[in-house]
Recover the amino acids of this structure.
């Protein structure tokens, strides 16, 4: 016995709707899966991009650190190379450069050339006060005037830690109460080595001044000093 026509129609319609529902569910499910997969893929890509950016940032930081270190070393070496026997008379320029340097450069200078740093700091503190000059004799044979003297280094001065020093000493004759003319022909220089703890003795020969009178006197000054170990 067959079902009534309305019932068959309803059954067919229901089956059709069920199929449609299944298809739609599959489609919606596929869309959701696709969305979920797309979101996960995007998040993974975003995380990878962040990781790559962090790596690049670290490389930039590392490169800058190496560059800064190289510049610090370069500046320290340049300063050390600038402090020499030939530039001893203009040590104030090196002191100014040192004072304007960053702490990193100063630390590098200490590692690179600590004795030169000590030398510069001693000059800054007024090194002349650490030396005691004394004239022992001044004679002339009307051809040459001979100046004899000593220079002693204070044992408490940090300069003593630098070891033996080479002193450059200038001697001259001039009238009392006058100032030495730098171009005066009546002057001479000599170099001697001073060992800390022992006075350095020296002799300077100066051309005789035929205009010398009883008002003429001898004098000398230490124009520069340099540690022989540097």
């Amino acid at each position: 016995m067959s079902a009534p026509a309305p019932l068959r129609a309803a059954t067919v319609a229901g089956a059709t709707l069920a199929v449609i529902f299944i298809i739609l569910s599959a489609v919606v499910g596929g869309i959701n899966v696709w969305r979920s997969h797309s979101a996960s893929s995007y998040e993974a890509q975003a995380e990878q991009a962040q990781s790559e950016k962090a790596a690049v940032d670290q490389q930039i930081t590392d490169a800058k650190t190496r560059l800064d270190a190289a510049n610090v070393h370069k500046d320290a070496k340049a300063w050390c190379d600038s402090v020499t026997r030939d530039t001893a008379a203009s040590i104030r320029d090196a002191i100014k450069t040192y004072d304007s340097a960053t702490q990193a450069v100063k630390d590098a200078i200490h590692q690179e050339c600590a004795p030169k740093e000590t030398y510069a700091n001693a000059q800054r503190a007024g090194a002349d006060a650490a030396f005691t000059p004394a004239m022992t004799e001044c004679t002339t044979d009307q051809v040459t005037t001979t100046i004899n003297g000593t220079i002693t280094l204070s044992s408490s001065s940090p300069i003593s830690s630098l070891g033996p020093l080479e002193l450059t000493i200038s001697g001259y004759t001039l009238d009392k109460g006058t100032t030495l003319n730098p171009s005066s022909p009546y002057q001479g220089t000599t170099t001697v080595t001073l060992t800390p703890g022992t006075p350095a003795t020296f002799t300077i020969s100066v051309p005789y001044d035929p205009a010398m009178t009883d008002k003429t006197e001898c004098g000398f000054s230490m124009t520069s000093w340099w540690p022989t170990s540097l």
User: Anything to note?
Assistant: Helices lie at 5-82, 91-100, 103-124. Confidence is low (pLDDT under 50) at residues 1-10. The chain is about 50% helix and 25% strand. The first strand starts at residue 131 and ends at 140.
